[in-house]
């Protein structure tokens, strides 16, 4: 069963990444630019700007990308929620390649002891990376409380990054405005598609 990052892990990532709506390079030697909640890659260009909604959407998408490599680890089934969260934060910051190096051939205990070694950028030790690795190590070593699990999403609340689109979809009659966080069935999807089709036909 695949794990998902909890709010504790998301808070850790946000606390170190911060949110910036204009592209920047935290380290001049980095290949690509960064934007939003630490979104990094070739799709970010110098001078690029985004909205807060864009940044929140990027974070949701990025979290899924960094959860996947942690779930693919051979020791994934041994990880508790705090350990999983710490490794997602590590992967978010250091990348999938370094995650594999950290975990390959190591036990859970050895991984915990090795996290703090990844504190350099451009060959230089950075204080910010030292603090982040220490925080990840502390979270990794924090025992999970019995019965703790990732809280299920409240299906009646709209996520901030989707609020505007949800309001527009409701106003246009594509959805009924209830249970925004609930999964959608193929039957419900058929209804939405047909409502969209009828709307487009009415405009012709």
UniProtKB/TrEMBL annotation:
It catalyses: Hydrolysis of (1->4)-beta-linkages between N-acetylmuramic acid and N-acetyl-D-glucosamine residues in a peptidoglycan and between N-acetyl-D-glucosamine residues in chitodextrins. Its EC number is 3.2.1.17. InterPro entries: Bacteriophage_GH24, Endolysin_autolysin, Endolysin_T4_type, Glyco_hydro_24, Lysozyme-like_dom_sf, Lysozyme_dom_sf. The keyword Transmembrane helix does not apply. Keywords: Antimicrobial, Bacteriolytic enzyme, Glycosidase, Host cytoplasm, Hydrolase. SUPFAM superfamilies: Lysozyme-like. Signal peptide: none annotated. The keyword tRNA processing does not apply. It comes from the Bacteria. It holds the Pfam family Phage_lysozyme. Belongs to the glycosyl hydrolase 24 family. This is Lysozyme. It comes from Paenibacillus cineris.
């Amino acid at each position: 069963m695949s794990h998902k990052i909890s709010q504790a892990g998301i808070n850790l990532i946000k606390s170190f990444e911060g949110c910036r709506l204009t592209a920047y390079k935290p380290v001049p030697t980095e290949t690509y630019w960064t934007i939003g909640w630490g979104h990094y890659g070739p799709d970010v260009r110098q001078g690029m700007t985004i909205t807060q909604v864009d940044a929140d959407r990027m974070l949701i998408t990025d979290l899924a990308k960094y959860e996947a490599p942690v779930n693919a680890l051979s020791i994934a089934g041994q990880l508790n929620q705090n350990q999983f969260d710490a490794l997602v934060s590590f992967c978010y910051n250091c990348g999938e390649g370094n995650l594999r190096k950290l975990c390959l051939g190591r036990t859970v205990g050895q991984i915990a002891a090795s996290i703090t070694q990844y504190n350099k950028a451009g060959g230089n030790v950075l204080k910010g990376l030292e603090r982040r690795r220490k925080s990840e190590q502390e979270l990794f070593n924090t025992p999970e409380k019995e019965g703790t699990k990732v809280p299920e999403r409240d299906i009646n609340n709209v996520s901030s990054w989707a609020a505007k689109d949800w309001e527009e979809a409701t106003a246009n009659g594509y959805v009924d405005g209830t249970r925004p966080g609930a999964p959608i069935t193929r039957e419900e999807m058929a209804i939405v598609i047909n409502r969209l089709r009828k709307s487009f036909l009415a405009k012709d």
